[in-house]
Amino acid sequence: MKFPGFPKEKQTWDFPTILNGYVHLLGGAQFKVLWYILRHTYGWQKSQDAISLSQFTKGIKKKNGEWLDKGIGLSRKEVWSSLGELEEMGFIEVILRTGKTSIFRPRLVQKIHQGSVENTSVAGVENTPTIPTITIPNKTNIQPEAVGVKEKKIVDKSELLRKLGMESQTRGATYDWQDYAVRLWKGIGLNHSPSKSFFKLVKEACFVGKRGLLDATYAYVSDARANNPEKLFYWKFYQFLKGKDVSKNQPVL
Predict the structure, then answer these.
(1) Which of 50, 66, 104, 201 is the most exposed place for a label (fewest CB within 10 A)?
(2) Which residues pair with 137 in a beta bridge?
(3) In DSSP terms, which residues pair with 110 in a beta bridge?
(4) Within 13 Å of residue 140, how many CA atoms lie on the same side as its CB?
(5) DSSP state of 184
(6) pLDDT for 103-153, tens place per residue?
């Protein structure tokens, strides 16, 4: 398919010029995903938008049959991988919601004025303060196949709960990963206590810096409405871990 060319009349939207000094840091897939988020936020004068995986990969078709856009031509795995990388690099923020489409927004710039923090976006849209990330060493001796991270940026506990769109409801959780595991468990529709296998999976994944894969798996399973979400969670997580895109070969669970 050949591009027909740009029309003579001006057809533009506000693209943040701050990216001029950062585009070289992005890979092709990362830039496509970031561009799509910016198009659906700043392009429509919004600070954030709910965007599904199918919209990223296949585009949006209007009720009258016309295409708003045809997506960015990436697989589900490439989109999720790029979303995690963009979030870690500080370009975007992701809010996962139980049973609902995830919300994406450009991460705001922080300006410090005499001890106070003011958040502004490159498009001039105000938003609520973000929670800063911290870096901690990985001191575990657990060695699953995904090991290899010496230090990893992790998000504060309250940020994890915010990403899942839930308020704290867990009592007696000694570590952040336990609290996080319970919320993942409830988020995929399971009301009884998490199994030991699920706790073990979340613990090992968090300790080796693979929380992003847990987030991606959660988003996938929460939208799948499977009869056995726990088994689907294990299966999808390990497929992500192996670097496979299995969206077209989902087992019946």
Answers:
(1) 66
(2) 151
(3) 119
(4) 16
(5) H
(6) 999 998 765 444 444 555 444 344 433 333 333 333 334 343 443 434 444
